[in-house]
């Protein structure tokens, strides 16, 4: 019987298990990372994986951008609340594409600073600083009067301005601030500009709403949140739901005119909208830091409004709710046309417009849904909140042309 040969380098007499090749094993050991290097490579791979994941997540958070290069040279646009945030980015992009933009802001100083900055970056001189305080119906009327004296056409109206979760205060006309600014001010503005939009058709209205509408309900018994005021889940959400119901009703009214109206949720965007946030200092710092990564930039937040304002493919699309540049279905309470009809009639009375449609049977033209004369019950609103006198006043002084 012959003995198995001892491999070179091994201790003579060592017994190896069957199939074990000590030569191959020693070569493998020299190639393999061990100790520090093995850990370094492992940590590097994990870091790369996490970075890739964070980059992809950030891209998802920012959402899609409107990438078509179509220009709108000479088209007349109004953007409300555009001295900062989403509105400012919207104007910047429209200006780069050649639009004549009326920047409708409540603070002329802040508006001018934004206008100069945008003119510088877009090389477009056709930007105009105009004062509009949506919390004052008179200011809305003054803005419209001046605009109509200056321009005979209006191609795009973007109702962007908004206020969120402020302490309960009243507008100049005595209405709850968030409902007054986010809904009523824009309601009057849009109605007073409809003749210009129709004259310039095909034209577009873009309403910046919010996903907060999901928490909202139109509180017919307490529209001005007098009995119960919830800053965010109450008043803000109600006002953003009102934006959507207004869009649906208006899209029905405007059928066949060539004027489209769509609304959108811009995403969760890092802007000044949370200026009324009243949490403790540490929570503000955590939020601010987290928002750098987890919130959209204002530029990303403007993309859905831009698509609705610009995309030739949407020229005849109307009555839609969009987010991340895509159309989304609405929850049942945001497409309830009975509520939309009621809100429209109520808003007409609150802003002093003559009714577009006859009131439903059993309700007098001056009654609101509660059977009372006005929904706010505020003494400061008395001059403008009496629906009958407002109607007379508005017909005489504003001359509403809804033809
Ligand atoms: N940011 C978000 O995460 C988010 C999410 C969903 C929906 N939205 C909606 O997006 C829109 C734009 O908000 P943003 O995030 O860009 O907020 P922002 O940075 O606070 O900008 C809001 C703009 O509205 C103006 N504004 C406020 N009250 C006004 C009034 N009474 N009259 C005229 N203008 C007034 C502000 O002017 P001042 O600077 O003078 O106050 C400002 O220019 C709002 O409608 C908001 O509800 C935002």
UniProtKB/TrEMBL annotation:
Keyword tags: Lipid metabolism, Membrane, NADP, Oxidoreductase, Transmembrane, Transmembrane helix
Transmembrane segments: 36-57
Catalytic reactions on record: all-trans-retinol + NADP(+) = all-trans-retinal + NADPH + H(+)
Pathway: Cofactor metabolism; retinol metabolism
UniProt-listed Enzyme Commission number(s): 1.1.1.300
Biased composition (Polar residues): 391-403
Region (Disordered), start-end ranges: 351-403
Amino acid composition bias (Low complexity), ranges on this chain: 364-389
UniProt cross-references to Pfam families, sorted A to Z: adh_short
Class of enzymatic activity (EC top level): oxidoreductase
Top-level lineage group: Eukaryota
Presence of the UniProt keyword Nucleotide-binding in the record: no
InterPro entries: NAD(P)-bd_dom_sf, SDR_fam
Record has Ligase as a keyword: no
GO molecular function terms noted in the UniProt entry: all-trans-retinol dehydrogenase (NADP+) activity
Protein name: NADP-retinol dehydrogenase
Native source species: Drosophila mauritiana
């Amino acid at each position: 019987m012959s003995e198995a040969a001892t491999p070179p380098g091994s201790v003579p007499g060592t017994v190896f298990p069957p199939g074990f090749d000590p030569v191959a094993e020693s070569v493998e050991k020299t190639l393999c990372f061990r100790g520090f290097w093995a850990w370094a490579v492992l940590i590097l791979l994990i870091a790369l994986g996490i970075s890739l994941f964070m980059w992809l997540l950030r891209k998802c958070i920012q959402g899609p951008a409107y990438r078509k290069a179509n220009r709108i040279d000479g088209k007349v646009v109004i953007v409300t609340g555009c001295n900062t945030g989403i509105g400012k980015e919207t104007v910047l992009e429209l200006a780069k594409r050649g639009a004549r933009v009326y920047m409708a802001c409540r603070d002329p100083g802040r508006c001018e600073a934004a206008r100069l900055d945008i003119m510088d970056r877009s090389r477009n001189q056709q930007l105009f600083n105009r004062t509009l305080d949506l919390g004052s119906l008179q200011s809305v009327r003054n803005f419209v009067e001046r605009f109509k004296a200056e321009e005979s056409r209006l191609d795009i109206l973007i109702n962007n301005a908004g206020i969120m979760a402020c302490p309960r205060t009243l507008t100049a006309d005595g209405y709850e601030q968030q409902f007054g600014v986010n809904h009523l001010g824009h309601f009057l503005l849009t109605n007073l500009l409809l003749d210009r939009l129709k004259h310039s058709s095909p034209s577009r209205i873009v309403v910046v709403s919010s996903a907060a509408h999901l928490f909202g309900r139109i509180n017919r018994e307490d529209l001005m949140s007098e009995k119960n005021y919830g800053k965010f889940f109450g008043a803000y959400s109600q006002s953003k739901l009102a934006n959507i119901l207004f869009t649906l009703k208006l899209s029905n009214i405007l059928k066949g005119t060539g004027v489209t109206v769509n609304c959108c949720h811009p995403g969760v965007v890092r802007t000044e909208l949370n200026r009324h946030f009243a949490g403790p200092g540490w929570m503000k710092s955590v939020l601010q830091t987290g928002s750098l990564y987890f919130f959209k930039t204002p530029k990303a937040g403007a993309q859905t409004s831009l698509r609705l304002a610009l995309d030739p493919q949407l020229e005849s699309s109307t009555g839609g709710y969009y987010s991340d540049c895509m159309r989304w279905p609405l929850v049942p309470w945001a497409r309830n046309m009975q509520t939309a009809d009621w809100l429209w009639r109520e808003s007409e009375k609150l802003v002093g417009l003559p009714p577009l449609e006859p009131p439903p049977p059993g309700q007098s033209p001056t009654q609101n849904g509660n059977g009372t004369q006005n929904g706010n019950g505020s003494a400061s609103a008395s001059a403008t909140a009496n629906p009958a006198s407002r109607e007379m006043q508005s017909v005489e002084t504003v001359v509403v042309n809804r033809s």
